[in-house]
Specification:
Shape: elongated
CATH architecture: Up-down Bundle
Distance between the termini: 16 Å
Organism: Acrocephalus arundinaceus (Great reed-warbler)
CATH topology: Growth Hormone, Chain: A
Number of helices: 8
Keywords: Disulfide bond, Glycoprotein, Growth factor, Secreted, Signal
Number of strands: 0
Number of domains: 1
Subcellular location: Secreted
Helix content: 55-70%
Protein name: MGF factor
Order of helices and strands: HHHHHHHH
CATH class: Mainly Alpha
Family: Belongs to the IL-6 superfamily.
Length: about 200
């Protein structure tokens, strides 16, 4: 069922300006009845779950290969590393805004897509899994962009080639720990993105 134009404008106004906690009581029947949007959410919840599983598999490899398994034991080393932090504050409960949340998810996927080159160099025998993960991330980002365009939300088109410089590490050990934190941070990023999609699906 298509969303009536007036209903869509009202819906976007609620989605873009209401904090997450206020959305629970908001009249979003137009959204919940939009089969295309619900299909998008369900499909990409599955997609995000698959990506999380692949990241978890790489985390196990890092643990088994380098004995880097516990984040609390590596916090001191983290201070010496230049690891990109990807904010998702617009996807959290108190500040939830659909347009900026979707944009932040896409921006984060772009950053981590580039950062995974560090993992590929660290674990060359698992290059195939990293490449599959990067392809899935590109597809997820494309799906979100398409849905934003369908809803009339503003989108940013990123260049196809990653322009961000890769993090540099001063030693092989720092490189290994950097790989550990890239995956750990990416997993947290995915968990937040998953919760945001699941929240929209539950409205």
């Amino acid at each position: 069922a298509a969303v009536p134009a007036g209903g869509l404008a009202l819906l976007l106004g609620v989605l873009l300006w209401a904090p997450w906690w206020a959305l629970h009581g908001a009249p979003l029947t137009e959204l919940s009845g939009d089969q295309d949007f619900q299909l998008f959410l369900q499909r990409n919840l599955e997609f995000t779950r698959k990506i999380r599983g692949d990241v978890a598999a790489l985390q196990r490899v890092v643990c088994d290969t380098f004995q880097l398994c516990k984040e609390d034991e590596l916090q001191l080393v983290l201070q010496d590393l230049d690891i990109a932090h990807v904010p998702l504050e617009q996807c959290h409960k108190r500040t939830f805004q659909a347009e900026t949340c979707f944009s932040q998810i896409r921006a984060g996927l772009r950053v981590y897509h580039g950062s995974l080159a560090t993992i590929q160099a660290l674990l060359p025998e698992h290059a195939g899994l990293v490449e599959t993960l990067q392809l899935d991330m590109a597809n997820l980002s494309s799906n979100i962009q398409q849905q934003m365009e369908d809803l009339g939300l503003a989108t940013v088109t990123y260049p196809s080639e990653n322009q961000d410089p890769l993090p540099t590490f001063s030693s092989h050990f720092h490189n290994q720990v950097g790989g550990f934190f890239i995956l750990a941070n990416f997993q947290r990023f995915l968990e937040t993105a998953y919760r945001a999609l699941r929240h929209l699906a539950s409205l």
